[in-house]
User: Fold these one by one.
Assistant:
Number 1:
Amino acid sequence: MMQQTPQSSQQRLLNGRDNVMKDANIPSNFSLAIQSPEYTLPGVLHFLQQEWRRFERERNEWEIEKAEYKARIALLEGERRGFANLKLDLMKRVKMLEYALRQERKKYMNNPKARTIQQQEEFTRTVDSPNPPSSPNLSSLRDSQDASVKLESQDKLPAAFVASQIDDKAKTRSRELLKSCLKEINQLALSTSKLPYTTAFTSGLQNQYSKITSQASQDVQHDTESISTLKDPSEENKAAARRQTPKQPDDSMSTFIPQHNTSLLQDGKIESGQQQKVDKDNDIPSTISDVEVPDNVDEVAMINNVINIAKERKQRDQSNPGSGSRKGLSEEEQLTKDVQEKYSLSADKVRKLLKNAERLIHQENNIPMSSKDSLLGKVDNLKLPSEAEVEVEDADSESRPKMWRAKHNLRGHLDCVRSVSFHANELLIASGSDDGTIKIWDLKNSIVKDSVMQKKSSHEEMDPIITYRGHTMGVTKVEISAEQGRLYSSSLDSTIRVWQLPPADKSPYSPYDSALNIAPYIGHTDAIWDFKLFPTAIADYLPLASASADGTVKIWDTSASGNLLKSSWSYNGVIDEHQDEQRNLPVPTSLDICHTNLRQLAVAYRNTEVKVFDVETGQIVLTIPADPSADNSCLTQINKIVSHPTLPLLITGHENKLIKFYDINTGNSVFTMSAHLDGVTALDIDPSGITLVSGGHDGSIRLWDISSTSRSCVQEYTAHRRKADEGVLSVQFHKELPWLVSGGADGIVKAYHHSI
Amino acid sequence: MTTAVEESTTTTSNTPLRRLYPGSHVEDTFQWPTLALDDIESSFSVQEYLQQLLREDYTDIQRLIDLPEGIDAEIWQYEHLRQLCSQLNYLIPSLDSECTVDSCPEMKADGWLYLCAAHPVTKSCPAIDYIVHTLDGATMLLNNSKYFPSRISIPEPSLKHLQAIARRLYRIFAHAYFHHREAFEFFENETCLHSRFVRLSKKYSLIPKSLLIIPRSTDGDEPSSNSPTSESPAILSRRSSTSTVQEIPDDTDTSTIGAEDAGDEDQGSEPADRVDDE
């Protein structure tokens, strides 16, 4: 006799849902429509279910709000929320009235305000345990006539029975409505692969109600089981469900005729697909609650997702062991198909998603409720493995704080990269190569991509934002002038060229703009090996000093357009007329601006002498005598000279593996160390003046703590493969950010990050 | 690792090292000792060997394109194409003064119109854009570690890219030849790049002969064995067709020209074949 209760309540619920579905289409009639289900819904079982739904709804509310924040499509989200809220209001009212009704009849559930998650969980458990949640759906209800015939005999709740009869009229009416709705929905879903989201949502909303109904019978089961006062109809219900469910996959596969059960099933899937997409995009942690409480598909439908669907299916399969495998297979296919159709995703993607979902369910079955948080982590990991990777990476780097880690390998040059340079403020890298080109790389883009997408992108190819061609021989040195928005480059072709930096929004294959090539500085008669831009103006112009194999150091006015060459110094100072002599004098190899006195320029010569010039006058302020062990050949020469940013210190990197420190005031050698296994080619000091980086032909980059007296090596790694007998050719710190860049003979530009 | 480096440096310390020393006169740069291919011990041995051959005599094309012993033919082509791109960088500066949007609003050569494949939808670019985009794209593709992960062997599926790259790069020569003859000749005299490229393409079938539209006289002293003499009339007939438009189908991936669509590109050669037949 109790068996009638679920049946009739199902029917009533169905009516209610049908009305609601109508409301979904015509929201203005909302409050009117609510009335009928309110007054016709009796029963303890329903009270229990309503409470259940309320909890779920609140969860969903929270989840939807979270989704809002994350969603990029504001319009869609707004609409979605609107519908959801309408539904919630409706449900709230229904539940409240139900609750009052129930309280009067039976003082059964006396804790309606139990809303904490804990309680919910407990509740879930109690429901969960007695119920292997088969989720019979509409078909079982549609054919409820058969079932009810059987069940009638056992009916011990005449009120409910009567109610169900009363409902019959409304039921048929709303069934008609539902039919027409679903027909439309089906057409939409079938005809267009890219169903507008709004439409999808409407159908989804309707499906929710269909699911409510379909779920109702099941929930009724739970309730009866957990409520001991009522007799247990679940066996019969289950039997009915079993009889019906195996048919569905075939139906859904074979036909799109808007029969209620099949079409609903399909729509449910589409809906779930949508939810899956949203879920993926927004990372709504709804999965947790949904997965935890698998029975309440009705509410969950609002934020349904693949996980839930898959789980539901699985459970259904479990309850229908005979047909399980076949059904599961076809349903999965159907789901995949629908999701694919809907979002034109690749089959692989969808499959992956489903797999993830399944895995989740698996895990979940093994994880006790208490470990919800850890599950959350796992869910996130599974859903966004890329992010997890990044996190792992970050954690990794945090555990080893003071280390530089390679972040980007920039491949784009066809030959040795002889010089790299950072933009002063931005993460722009300029690189000059033996292939005659200068390329600009924008790490900023990749970093954004990195955090959003995945760590893997650092290993993907990155295009330079621009390639400058203009030199007729290999490029020896590049430098970006942030203030001027320019790039300077020197070459073996004895010119310095000036380039305009491309606009920030330049795309890789935008039209060629020859205007970016501003002007060449012509004056040197041999290869230019080094140059340096002055950070501040001297005597109302911003100088650039260049060192060339023609034996001269020249000062250029970068702000003028006419007479660029300001002065020219030979080994002996300001140039005189004896050009013949110049040829035999030592040639400058490298130069740097003395940061302790920005009007002074330190020039290193091949014979390892270092001379400090006054930029304005060209006077030699200081000469640091040549190293006694040097033999005036290139085998002992200074390859690179840098001045310390804060201390009066000059540091030179020598071809014979040495790094030397000189006091800029006295000219005395302060410290000498054998730094590399081969010639030292590159030096730079970080802006704080604590760390010196050196690169050598041995292919390694070494970092030295020069704040201590021991000047110990704090990190060493192989950075570049050797080509011919060259290795690392250039290194530079970023002036503001914890980044380091290096270029080498292997033609690769590498960027390293240092997490503080 | 460190010991390995130590060994290699000690073994080479007796001979002049193959490196550039800052401050060197330009005539002293790259005056490196000649090594046998087997003695070049680096990941870039083939590239180094090719560059060494070029330094020795860039006019001896036969020697340059002949496959050295112990090297895959594909790798040899790959390194040649890299070198080609590298050297083509030096052609651009001499072109960009005279080849402008105004002078050459379309990428044309001898009646052919080439569409730029660097964009999401293939379109007609001004010649200088086409040249720069093609060179950029080819460079990035040759540097793409996905398609060309190694300098020792090339994965089978990537081989088709070599042909796509060669076919496109050839158009740069073609445009320069037919529209900027002076720059072309000057560049050719300095580098023999075109002759080398054409000979290489013929030898390794990188470009269908029907697409080689620059008259043979500029190919240098080419042995008759490499190209049948019967080709001349074909060239003439091709040259007589003046208004052929060659469609270059989509290159969907802008970052890697010809990477995804070399198959499509093959269609590009079909109109050419038809023209050939006429």
Number 2:
Amino acid sequence: MKQHRSLSASRRGLIKWGLLGFGGLMIAALPKAVSAQSSGRTITFSADDVGILNFALLLEELEAAFYAAAVDSGQISDSMELEYVQVLGAQEAAHVTFLRSVLGDQVLFETADLSFNSSGLNAVLSDRSTILNTAVTLEDLGVHAYNGAGPSLTNPTFILAAGSIVSVEARHAGGVRALLGRSTTQPDSDRLVSDDDLVASLNPFKGQAYDELYTPGQVVAIVGSLGILNNPINGALVA
Amino acid sequence: MKIYFNSIFYPINQALRPVIVKITALGDRCDQQIKQMQRLGRTIALALPLAMLLLCAGPIAAAQAQEAVLTPRQVTEYALTLEKLEADFYRRAVTAAQSGGLSGVPQAAKDIIVSYGQDEAQHVADLSAVLPSLGGNPDMVVIPTNPNYAAILGRDPFANPADFLLVGQYVEDLGVAAYKGQVQNLLAAGEAGKTVLAAALEIHSVEARHAAGVRFLRQTLLGADVRPWISENARTKQNASSVEVIYNENRMGSPIPFSSDAFDGYATQSEVLALVGPILTEAPQTSQPRPQTPSNQGGSTENNAPRALW
């Protein structure tokens, strides 16, 4: 079991990775994000734990690249807002580092394989309000995506790790929503997937008091609607 | 001694009964729990050791090597207990506000508190509706008429916004950790646990949004040095007025780097109930400042703070 071997990687090792990795990741993601025009290679996710963790990695990469670009845009000038955006970006980068460590040689793509659409990215970086509201969308989406992945995971350490990350994503969502004066929880009017489209068996409860479970397919559709990522996505997980 | 426990701490005993059955090992583990308990601060340092003694001295304590796996029904009953407490906690805050107690707090912040209370009440209603299908009875999941919230800081948490929001942060962060601590149990239950797992996940991240919101209010309204996320190597050991989280957030020995601010820690049921046990006792029936008791005297000058700032 490769993922087990990788998982036993020492905490010290992970932290060292993180410290060494953050700067590199932020730098690596940024030029790609503003320069790539090609569609990038297709990423195919399998419907198992490895596919799910790789899918989570993709969302984390997207978030990390977004925050790096947001900082670089110069549009966030308020010191408190800038601190939030910087810390959130660093935390997403830590998630990237962690997931790459856990996946080891089962990682499906490198950061450099991702191709970000520069016009799409520029559109969401146009001003402070657009940046923060896009952050809310990405963070809300991350919460629903991790929640949706939970019941499909089979490895107990993976579901605990997902839980450890998803509540941080929810804190991000709450924090940025608060900066904007928006509700920290998600009103039904903000819902990214409508009641009718939610999978009933995954969602015993619905409404503002709950963060509903989205399927990977639903998440991919929302990512696509943002127009940021060029890489085609397919595979059994997102079918 | 036993009679003393049974009479004075009967409610704690009741609340911790499942824990006593499930608690793991003596020795190191109890030492660890006592250390955690000390992080709550000196003000409740008398109440908790007693709860801990109950835990550590449970007759079946040594029988199991690690924390037992809870069934989906047990997880639901446990979650419902916490949700009932949270809902009650916010209800009392709203009552305090209605009687003029929240006068120093902006209306927008009051609206947030009301909204979080509604969420918790919704969780109570929906978990209660699910429990019978698991063989349980929501009416058997009870909390005291007047939970002893003063046990958390050693003083009434509804007397001023600073205390209320600090306790709110403790409660919400602990709720997040408590739900996270059950995902492996629910996964282990297989198909039988899928519905409760989905429900727990749906609630878990909303509690984290609440925690973030309360923390944001503390940062922006009170100037507290706190952010929506739990800080790197969060303070858990100092006196109660400066502790960031009351459970063991920076758990070591896991491949998951819990001490990182990018990863939230979890708490087991026994850890949570050890923290909540003192609250699950009937509070003294007074509307005035309570007479000093041994359980809230340890904290020095904290008890001399003005009781009604708003």
